[in-house]
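Sync notes, pocket subgroup
Present: LS, DG
LS reminded everyone that the earlier model was apo-only. Rerun requested with PBG included. Inputs:
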Amino acid sequence: MSLIKPSRLRRTVSIRSLVRETRLSIDNLIRPIFVTHRNKCLEIESMPGQFYYPLDEIEKTIEGSIKLGINGIILFGIPSSKDEIGTDTIRENGIIQKAVKKIRGSFPELIIVTDVCFCQYTTHGHCGILNHNGDIDIISSLKQVQKQALSHADAGVDFVSPSCMIDGMVQHIRESLDNNGFEDRGILSYAVKYGSAFYGPFRDAVDSSPKDGDRKTYQMDPGNIREALKEAHLDEAEGADIIMVKPALPYLDVIREVKNQLSCPVAAYQVSGEYSMIKAAAQNHWIDEEESMIESLLGIKRAGADIIITYFADAVAKIIRSRCY
Ligand code: PBG
C-alpha cells in the first residue's frame, strides 16, 4: 500500500505548482520553419518531425501553430539555385520574399522573423560575400545584408534576424530600415553565436556547410564569455531590439550574464543539434522525449531567456495547454 494517500498526492502536486519558480509560456516561443520551392512536404532526415514546407502548404502548418497559441515564427528558405553572392536573398521573388508575402497576407497578427544570412544561398556556403582571397569582404557583405533586410521588410516581416556575424551589421541594417520608412521593424540580432557542432543537422537540412574552410573565424569560441558579452553590448548599442544567444543549452551561463547586463530582451535558440539529440535518444527509448524536452526548455528559461526559439514549439505548446508548467 502506498504511504501517500491519493488526496495527499494531489495536494503535493498543487503545492509544487504553487511554489514553482520558473514556468514555460506559449507566448515566449518562436517556431522555426523551413520553406522550399518544391511541391511536396518532405521530412528533414536529420531532424525527425521537422519538414520542408512547399509554399502551398506553409499557411496550413502555420495555422496549426496559431491554433496552439504560437505567436511567432522564424523562416529559413531553401533557394532553387545558389550563386557566389546569394542573389536569391534579395530577389522580389526569392523564396523568403514569396513566403513572407503569403504568410503576412493570411496572418496579419503573426510575428514573422526572417534569418538574414547568405550561407544557404551561396555556392561557397559562407555567411557573406567573399573577396579574391576567399575571406569575407566586409563592405560588400554589409551592402548585401542591407539589401536583404530591406527586401524582407518590404515583404512584411516584423523582425529581421541577421546571423552572419559581420561587425557593424546591426547598425547598417538599422540605418537602411529607418531611411526607407521601416522604422517600425525590429532587429533580433544573433549577437552571440558560437562556432558550434550543434548546427550539424541544420546545415544538412539546408545544405549550407562551407565548401572550404569553416565558420570559426566569425563564430565565437565556445570557451569565451567576455567576448560574448562584448558582442551583445555592441549590438544593443547599434540598435538591436532583441539579443540572441545560440546555441542554448551549452551556454546557459552566457544567457544568464547577457540577461543580467543588458536591458533588452534575450532570446535563446535551442538549435537543431539540441533538438535532434533529444529526438534520437527518445526514438531509441533511452530518454523520455516529453520530459527531457520540458526540462531542457525550463533550464533555458531559468537561465534568463525571455524568448525561446525551438523546433519543439508546437509540441511544447500542446503540453502547456494540457498541464501546468
Ligand atoms: C545561419 C544559421 C544557422 C543556424 C541558424 N541560422 C547555421 C549556422 O550558423 O551555421 C543554425 C540553426 C540550427 O542549428 O538550428 N543561416
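DG: The two ends are 30 Å apart (CA to CA).
LS: DSSP finds eleven helices and ten strands in the chain.
Action: DG to write up.
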